[in-house]
Amino acid sequence: MLYGNYPNPFNPSTSIRYVLAEETFVTLRVYNTMGQEVATLVNEVQTAGERSIVWDGKTGSGTQVASGIYLCTLVAGDQVRTARMIILK
Fold it and tell me: How many whole angstroms separate alpha carbon 16 and alpha carbon 27?
């Protein structure tokens, strides 16, 4: 289950919280509104439990993203959840 991020809107970083019911392979990615991947925050097997990861508002190559709406998508096993995040500068 993806709880989304806090704070939202945010600047310069936000914490994304999620819970896994069982051990599974997890990907957590950030996309822009055009569907382009901005960053991969998690890409690994994780055990069951609550997790929190901080996104610093940067792309995978380290470039600061522009103000706007971004989508955070969590894929855990066969579950897919998406939350909307807003970065303001």
Answer: 13
Q: At 60, is the secondary structure helix, strand, or coil?
A: coil
CATH of span 2-87: 2.60.40.4070
Each residue of 3-50: pLDDT tens digit? Answer: 999 999 999 999 999 999 999 999 999 999 999 999 999 999 999 999
pLDDT of residue 89 exceeding 90, the answer is no
Number of H helices and E strands in the chain, helices first, is 0, 7
What are the domain boundaries of the chain?
A: 2-87
| Tokens read off for 46 | 């994780």
